[in-house]
Specification:
This protein is an alpha+beta fold. Helix content is 54%, strand content 19%.
Amino acid sequence: MSESADAKSSGIPVAELGIEQINALKTQVEQELNFFQESASQLKVLIQKTEQSILSMDVLKAAKPGHTALVPLSESMYVRAELDDPSRMLIEMGTGYFAEVSREKAGEFFERKKKYITKQV
């Protein structure tokens, strides 16, 4: 290493650390690694949910007013509902905010969201 690289490095060589310090460093690195792995997993789940939203919108393209659909109330409970205007979607924009938008605007929103999340992974 050059002198300028040594001057920029403010770390302590591992060879100079004691066993307790090395164990503490190992624990810290493992915790950080777990955090990043969990974050990446959560982002991948968000991408899958966004892709599912896009696919669900495609299914409704052929729907006409009066079309019936099963609407999930929970992961295991659904209710049959009649669509008044299948060209309008109610989308969750995040942190509990919803907006009613056209199918086209909803598609644009989900594509932007997918692109943004993919960059985060």
